[in-house]
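ERR on first pass: missing label on line 2. Operator R.T. fixed the label and resubmitted. Corrected input:
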Amino acid sequence: MSVLPNKQEKVTLDTFMRGLWEENPVFVMLLGLCPVLAVTNSTMNAIAMGLATLFVLVASSTLVSLLRKMIPKQVRIATYIIIIATFVTIVDYVIQAISLDLYNALGAFIQLIVVNCVILGRAEAYASKQKLGAAVVNAFGMGTGFTIALLCLGTVRELLGAGTILGVQIFSSNFEPWVVMILPPGGFFVLGAWLLLFDYLKQRKEQKLLSAEGAVANGS
Amino acid sequence: MSSTEQIQTRPQTPGLAMLRTLGGVAMLSGLLVVLAFQFTQPLIEENKRIAIEQAVSRVIPGVVSKRDFILGAEGLFAADAPGAKGEKIYAAYNGDGKLQGIALEAAATGYQDVIRILYGYNQDCQCVTGIKVLKMAETPGLGDKIAFDPEFLKNFEALDGRLNGQKSGLENPIVTVKHGGKREQWEIDSISGATISSKAIGRMINASGQRMFPLIIQHLDELRSGREN
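pass 2 clean. output:
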């Protein structure tokens, strides 16, 4: 008995773009906030964490989608977790092979990708119901959206908290860094500011749509 | 409704399919992890070796080659000697094979977690020549300055670690003092705002020095020749 596929989605640009904007895992769905707040104290950490999550997301979605007809629904979560944990372990080794400094900077958050709800959420809500193509494209979009969100936080926090971006001095040495920005509270401040901006843009878009509709109704 | 009917109406659990799926996925997972391990292990080992070498050349100037030893109360042994008891030390030599200094590891609890450092010791001036933080989880922007704050690192360019008359310990214990309060060569000027982290560094070097410097001086000839006994 497998999880029955409901509506199959055709792969379009929207399958990819949804993860970037409309259903952005961080700014819209507010998922996976633990790594978002914890490792975004520098741009480099944000990039590394984003790419690691992107890889795990795409690889696990691929496997889940391929096996979707063989996985009995009673053991689906256990199976997804094994699949996700496998790819997280691989990422863990690869990051150690690339740079030990980076590995130390990310600390336990690499292993904690296993419990990132973005990934399990994608496997459960999307990859287990869709064909391989759609699952991979959607996972890629979500992973990219997650990476962009981490970068949004990471660059702002590093810039204000240390006056640098990717270790390159941006502000003059007269700038007194706002150390709080690279401490845990800074994560909440910057995330709050980004959410405010996203919500403002969304509301403005809706208002424009409404007034446009109103104009059409009045004109007719 | 009788109990037998109830059992029949309940959807059946596909035992075989569950076993097949979980077993299959677990095996696939094992295979992938082993493959990843096999491919990355040599690279990770190489990275660790490079990291140690870089750290040694940072704490001891002019290093060309190094040899690893284990030094303890029972003597000096090669790093790979079986059953050797003691601490791992790295003897660093210049191009002519002359002993430039010894790099030692030290650790103590900082503000968040254990701080581990590598530091260099020069046998001629009997002083510390530099430190490099290997692992820490100190507060970013405050405690983590121990790793890169130039003023703080200056403390360790010639930190006095002379032995006492009996050669059993340090003449003057190495201590961390309040920011701006350094008067003596064996004192460490702490970073303001990172007192706990700075003190941890002083504590670990003092503990390690009291224990290891007398042993190093005792085995200096062997270390100079690069041969263990």
